[in-house]
Amino acid sequence: GESVGLHLPTLSVQEGDNSIINCAYSNSASDYFIWYKQESGKGPQFIIDIRSNMDKRQGQRVTVLLNKTVKHLSLQIAATQPGDSAVYFCAETPSPYKLSFGAGTTVTVRA
Amino acid sequence: ETGVTQTPRHLVMGMTNKKSLKCEQHLGHNAMYWYKQSAKKPLELMFVYNFKEQTENNSVPSRFSPECPNSSHLFLHLHTLQPEDSALYLCASSQEASSSYNEQFFGPGTRLTVL
């Protein structure tokens, strides 16, 4: 079906290390791919997006990589901080205004 | 108020009750969305409104009835719900829901428990 899934449900990372969160998507027609962060008691917060004609996009401490050959998306967080502890979702756009979300990866940062 | 706000933040209701969830966006957007977030399941799109017109109903049961009186407000009217409808209901908005991708901004959600 048209769904986006994350490879691992949980990720534990040492503070200061880099984090890599992976996601597999299924719809080759999706034009945008987005990463959201959801902290406890809050709604999803946009982190970064990437269009299908790009391979890499960088933001502040984050980098998103897109591999269309294997339908793989990843989010890299540099120098992970305690405030990065949250659930991370990838989403794809099977149509321009419809987001199809994956199940999420819970990231826990160890002090 | 800034961004997208939702009220109430928590709601407990019986299966025979009627209640409504409210969403308001302060971003000047023209599209609003309802999503359902259940435990251990991905976020599910329920409804989309673009310029007050419903453009998407993702096979949602009729016990959920949306209303969009203007581009800033969105309601979800609930009646005769089932325990499996217990979830976090998220509202989002974007500039438009059209042929171009627009970033969606989410509210904090209403945690609904159906007894």
Describe the structure.
Chain A has 111 residues and is an all-beta fold. Helices cover 0% and strands 58% of the residues of chain A. In chain A, strands 2, 4, 5, 9, 10 and 11 form a six-stranded mixed sheet that branches. Chain A has a five-stranded antiparallel sheet with strand order 1-3-8-7-6, with no helix packed on it. In chain A, a hairpin with a 3-residue loop joins strand 6 (56-58) and strand 7 (62-67). Chain B is mainly beta and 115 residues long. Chain B has no helices and eleven strands. Chain B has strands spanning 4-7, 10-13, 18-25, 31-37, 44-50, 53-57, 64-70, 73-79, 87-94, 105-106, 110-114. In chain B, strands 2, 4, 5, 6, 9, 10 and 11 form a seven-stranded mixed sheet that branches. In chain B, strands 1-3-8-7 form a four-stranded antiparallel sheet, with no helix packed on it. The N and C termini of chain B lie far apart (32 Å). Chains A and B meet through strand 4, strand 5, strand 9 and strand 10 of A and strand 5, strand 9 and strand 10 of B.
